[in-house]
Specification:
By secondary structure, the chain is of the alpha+beta class. The chain folds into two domains: about 45-205, Fructose-1,6-Bisphosphatase, subunit A, domain 1 (Fructose-1,6-Bisphosphatase, Chain A, domain 1, 2-Layer Sandwich), CATH 3.30.540; about 220-340, D-Maltodextrin-Binding Protein, domain 2 (3-Layer(aba) Sandwich). Helices cover about 35% and strands about 20% of the residues. A hairpin with a 2-residue loop joins strand 7 (about 175-180) and strand 8 (about 185-190). Helix 2 runs antiparallel to helix 3. It starts with 9 loop residues before the first helix and ends with a helix.
């Protein structure tokens, strides 16, 4: 007797083939997914290169900011209201600077997480890639340091102090880049487009800026936001006395520079920087890194470190100082919840 065979109907053949293809597909996609994951985990990036790239990105963005302001082609719009009720401006300077800065970093290191204040994909795509040239100043001060790419978050502010930019208060305007590793700010760049001054620092490696020789702890001059002040005057009065000198200024980047040894006499000089309302991390990360590299501090008003991963917002207020007893400053501050009423 001839052996019996299994005969499939046409429908059975189709089902069998589909099942086979499904198994192959899942095996293949699983293999690809694992390889992509391994690729990402195996990638490292040199922080010295990221410092040099951050400076170049801030400078290129700054050129756009300056050009558009000088050409008076701001194309000013409103992004809505801030949490304090102030109008939040958007200009062509913000958008063009974002395109230059964001894409230069992403085109060079596409596997890095880059968070920007602006988001715009209109017009011709930016294809520029950094040339990997390390400036002599950085090469002499900063050594190579490799870190896992997955641990890095880059924060960019294409135009800090947009309100002041629209008012032509150019001294407050900056472009900023910050690199955080596992949430800790380690590289900070603050560039002033209209003077072409760039401050940079890398924690544990070097900086081109420094602290001033003296600061006043007993009667500190305190710099605050001119457009998002909230109840900051009452808050400062409760902590340091009603006669405390308060310096209103635009831009978080500018306020951090006011705590340092200025490049010329045109800069405000402050001992402490305080902000008691909501603030975005791209506004403060670069300044935090610079202060940290110089031995200073930037924390919430409760003295807590700020984590530069994940969510973009910092709701805990801000206290920044250098060469002062930061813990003692924190202890002087009243309850933020009470001030917010």
């Amino acid at each position: 007797m001839a052996p019996m065979g299994i005969r499939l109907s046409p429908l059975g053949v189709v089902v069998f083939c589909l099942l086979g293809l499904g198994v192959i597909y899942h095996l293949y996609t699983g293999m690809v997914s694992n390889r992509i994951s391994a690729f990402k985990q195996g990638k490292t990036v040199d922080l010295r290169e990221l410092l040099a790239l951050s400076i170049e990105a801030a400078v290129q963005g700054g050129r756009e900011v300056k050009r558009i302001r000088e050409d008076n082609t701001l194309d000013e719009k409103s992004k809505g209201k801030t949490k304090e009720g102030a109008s939040e401006k958007l200009t062509l300077g913000d958008l063009n600077s974002h395109k230059k800065m964001f894409h230069l970093i992403k085109n060079t290191f596409p596997y890095l997480q880059v968070n920007s204040e602006e988001h715009d994909s209109t017009g011709e795509p930016e294809t520029a890639v950094w040339n990997h040239v390390i400036p002599t100043e950085i090469g002499q001060k900063v050594g190579s340091r490799e870190v896992p790419a997955e641990s890095v978050t880059v924060w960019i502010d294409p135009l800090d102090a947009t309100q002041e930019y629209t008012e032509n208060l150019r001294q407050y305007v900056t472009t900023m880049v910050c690199v955080a590793v596992n949430g800790d700010p380690v590289i900070g760049v603050i560039h002033k487009p209209f003077t072409e001054y760039t401050a940079w620092a890398m924690v544990g490696a070097g900086a081109n800026v420094r602290a001033r020789e003296t600061y006043s702890e007993k009667a500190p001059q305190i710099i605050v936001s001119r457009s998002h002040a909230g109840k900051v005057k009452g808050f400062i009065g409760a902590a340091f006395g009603n006669d405390t000198v308060i310096i209103p200024a635009g831009g978080a980047g500018y306020k951090v520079l006011a705590l340092l040894d200025p490049p010329d006499d045109k800069y405000d000089k402050a001992d402490v920087y305080i902000h008691i309302t909501y603030i975005k991390k791209w506004d403060i990360c670069a300044g935090n890194a610079i202060l940290k590299a110089l031995g200073g501090h930037m924390t919430t008003l409760k003295g807590e470190d700020i984590d530069y991963r994940g969510h973009e917002a910092n709701n805990g207020g801000l206290l920044a100082s250098i060469n002062m007893d930061h813990k003692a400053l924190v202890e002087k501050l009243p309850s933020l919840d009470k001030e917010r009423g």
